[in-house]
Amino acid sequence: MTDASFIPRPGLAFRVGITGARALDAAALPALQQALRQVLGEVKATLETLAGQPETAALYAPGAPLLRMISPLAEGADRLAATAALALGYRLEAPLPFPADEYEHDFPNTAGEFRDLLAAAAPHVLALDGARGEAETRCYEAVGRLVVRNCDLLVAIWDGGKSRGRGGTAEIVRYAARHGLPVWWLHASGQGQPAWLADGAALKQLDACPRGEAAQPLLVKYIEQRVLPNAMMEPPQAGMIGGLLNRLLGEDTRSPLTAMLAEPRPERRIIWSLHGRVMRWAAGSRPKTPAAPPAPAGEVWAYWQRFYEPVDRCAVAYAERYRSSYILVFALAAFAACAAVLGVGIHPVALVSTSVEFALLIGIMVIVGVNERRHWHKRSITYRLLAELVRKQQALALLAWSLPAAEAFAVTGESAAAPVRDVLVGWYFNAVLRAAPLARGTLGGETLVTASAYIRAGLVEGQIAYHANRQEEMERAARRFGRLGSEFFLLTLVAVMVKFLLMWTLALAPGTHGVGVLDRYTILAGFVAALLPALSAAFVGIRGYAELEFMADQSLQMHRVLAQFAERLRHVPLEAPLASQEVGAELLVLAEGMLRDVRGWALLFRVKAVEVG
User: Fold this and answer.
1) 187: helix, coil or strand?
2) Which three-class secondary structure state does DSSP give residue 196?
3) How far is CA 384 from CA 158, 269, 379, in A?
4) Residue 587: how many CB atoms within 10 A of its CB?
5) Which of 65, 81, 293, 306 is the right S-S partner for 18, CB 3.0 to 4.6 Å?
6) CB distance 236 to 252 below 8 Å
7) What is the side-by-side order of every strand in the sheet holding 441-443?
8) How many Å apart are CA 366 and CA 610, to the nearest integer?
9) Neighbouring C-alpha atoms within 13 Å toward the C-beta of 164
10) What domains does the chain contain, in order, with CATH numbers?
11) What local confidence, expressed as pLDDT, does residue 110 receive?
C-alpha cells in the first residue's frame, strides 16, 4: 500500500460532543471538571495508542490523530467541556444557535469568557440562522441536535430527569439514543460514577447501566471498533473458477479493505466499453444530460468531492467490466451453441467447429474466472454504495447535517450475514465522516441561498434528468432486445421449415442430380436454425440479466420522489428563522430514501454474478 493509492485514506479523527445544564452547582464543578478531564483524556490516550499500531497506520492518512470537541459554548457544561478539551489539545469547534453578537446576550455576565473561547475555536465557528421570539427554543434544540449529528460520542452532564424545555439536556440525550450515538453520562451533581449509555434501551433502566470501572472498557472498545475494522481484514473468498485461477496465478491474500486502500486508477480499455456500446445501440439516440452546476465554494464541498470522484470512477469502471463480461459470456455461449451443431460427425468441418466450440467455452471460463478472481461484480457494488453515501453526505454537509453513523451501516446491511465488502462501506464512510470539516460562517442569508440552489440544481434536478434519461434508455433497450428475440425466433421457424423441406427433398429423391448441393444447403439451414435461437436466447438473456424493466421502473419511482422534494424545497421560505434546518431535514429524508433505493438495487444485483451455466 502506498500514499499514491487512487482511493484516498481518511485522516484518523474522533469527535466528542457536549450537552448539559447551563446552571451548575458551584460545589459540583471540581468533580465535573475532573470527570471531563478523565473521559477526554481516555479518548485521547486510546486514539493515540491506536494511531501507533501498524494496522492503523496502514488504514489512515499520515499525521497525528485529530481530536475534536463540538461545543455550543453556553455557560455551564458547554464551557467546562470546551476548557478541558483545549487543555488536552483538542480542536474546539463551536456551532451557535444565533450569530455570536446575538448569542452572547444570553450570558451578559460572562460574555468575556465566551469571546475568549470563541477566539480559541476560530475559524471553526458556525452560526445557525436562528432568531429570538417564538423560534428561540427551537434554536437551542437545533444546535443541540447539530452537536449530536456531528459527533461520535456525546458527553452529557445531566441530572437524569426530564427536560425543562425544548432542546433541554434530556431531550438531546434521547435524540442521541434514537440515532445510535452512545452517551457518556456525568451526573450534574458531580456525585456518583460516570455511566455508559449505549442506546435507547439504557435510558429505560438508568440505574442498571454500566458505571465507573465497568463503563471505561466499553468506551475503549467502542473507539477501537470504530477505528479498526478487524472483521474486514480477512482475505476474500473466490468462486470455484476464480479459486482455480488463484491456484494457477497465486493466491490473492489481501483483504477487501486492504485491496480498496491500494486501489490503482482504473484503466480505460475498449473491451470494457462493450456493455455501454450495446446498450446505446439498443436504446438508439441518447438524450442530452444537462450541464452540472458550478461547485460551491469552501472546504466542505471540496473535502467530500476529493473522496467522491475516485470511488465513483471505480464504481463505473468495475460495473462496466462486470457488465461487459456478461455480454461477452452470452455472445460466446451463442456462438458455442452454433459450433456444437456443426460439430456433429467426423468430417473436417466438424473437427474445426468442435475446436472452435472448445475455444469458446475456454473463453467463457476465463472471463468468469477473471471476474471472480478480481471481484469486479462485488467491487462495483461496494464502490457504488460508497459513492452514493458520499454524494448524499456532500449535500447534507453544506447545511451542517450528517447521515447518522448507523445509517451507513443500515444502507449496507450490517449484520452477521452481511457481505464483508458491504460492511467495509459503512466503516470507510464513517472514518471519512469523522475527519470531515464542519461548515463555517453563518448558515443563513446568501450562504443558505447558494447551498439550496446547488442542492436543487446538482443533487435534485441533476438526478431527475439522470433518472428520466435512464428510464427512457432502459425502456428502449428492453423493447429492442425483446423485439430482436421474437424476430430471431420467428426466423428460426423459417430456417427449420426450409431445413425440413430440404431433408424431405433429399429423402424423396436420393441419388438424383444436385443432391450434393441440397446436402450443403441442408447443413447451412441447420447451422442457421441453430444460430438464430442461440442469438434469440442471448438477446432475451441480456434483457433479463440486466433487469432493464426493473431499472426503468426504479428510475420512474425515483423521478417522482425527487420531483416531490423539489416542489417542497421551492416552498421553503429561506429568509425564515432556522430555514437551514427545514431544508436539512427535508434533504435528510430524501437522502435516506435514495439510499434505501440504492440498497434495494444492490441486493438485487448482488446475485447477478457472472457464472458458467
Assistant:
1) strand
2) strand
3) 42, 20, 8
4) 23
5) 81
6) yes
7) 195-197, 183-187, 153-158, 13-20, 66-70, 91-96, 125-128, 441-443
8) 11
9) 8
10) 13-228 (3.40.50.450), 240-606 (no CATH)
11) 95
- State percent of the chain over pLDDT 70: 84
Cβ neighbours around 350 below 10 Å, total: 15
Q: Give CA–CA dist 129/579, Å, rounded.
A: 7
Sequence-distant (≥ 6) Cβ neighbours of residue 317 within 8 angstroms: 266, 268, 272
Please say if the pLDDT value at position 415 is more than 50.
Answer: no
Banded pLDDT at 278 (limits 50, 70, 90): confident
Greatest mean pLDDT among 147-161, 441-455, 488-502: 147-161
pLDDT digits (tens, 9 = 90+) for 74-118: 999 999 999 999 999 999 999 999 999 999 999 999 999 999 999
What 8-state DSSP symbol labels residue 165? S
Residues with Cβ within 8 Å of residue 496, at least 6 apart in sequence: 525, 529
DSSP 437: P
Amino acid at 327: I
Could you tell me where the DSSP H helices lie in 92-215? 100-103, 111-121, 136-149, 169-178, 200-203
**147 near 95, Cβ under 8 Å?**
yes
Angle, CA of 495, 498 and 503, to the nearest 5°? 125
Contact by Cβ (8 Å): 588, 602: no
Nearest-angstrom CA–CA distance, 197 and 208: 10
Q: Would you tell me the crossing angle of helices 579-606 and 446-454 to the nearest 10 degrees?
A: 20
Strand-pair category, 183-187 with 195-197: antiparallel
